[in-house]
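Got a spare moment? Tell me how you read both lines of this record:
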Amino acid sequence: YRRYFVNNNGNMLSECEIREILKDCDVIAHTSKQNNSKWTMYEELKHCCKAGDLNKIYCHFLCAIKFLHPELFSKIDDMMKLKWHWQLNMCICKKEIFVEYCKFAFEISDIFLSVYNIKNYPLRSAGYIYEILIWGLFLETHNYRVLDMPVKVI
């Protein structure tokens, strides 16, 4: 899990490059667009989780989102049909944006965990949903300027 954002030369972004990039955008993140996936977001999740687990976990996440953010609920269906997603839980942004995301994500998590017994399912299953759905939902519904940057794995 050692990854980092890279510049056009394939080198790790320097602090100077990051500061320059953040003058024109709010968030640096990474998508799966470069992979040319044939799978939708939902199919990607099915690949990462056992199908039965996914349906139960996904249903609980949807209920939590609908309860907390009914105005965002209709966007989820469209997002799940996309053939790309925000990937790897990586971002560089201002502290205020990150704090806003944490509030958004943990608010959903609190409701989710109040009805979902995490001990009965693989722990990573919920993590995949967070990575693929919650971060993307946050970015797609808050009008931030996001720059999709390539990453390199060590």
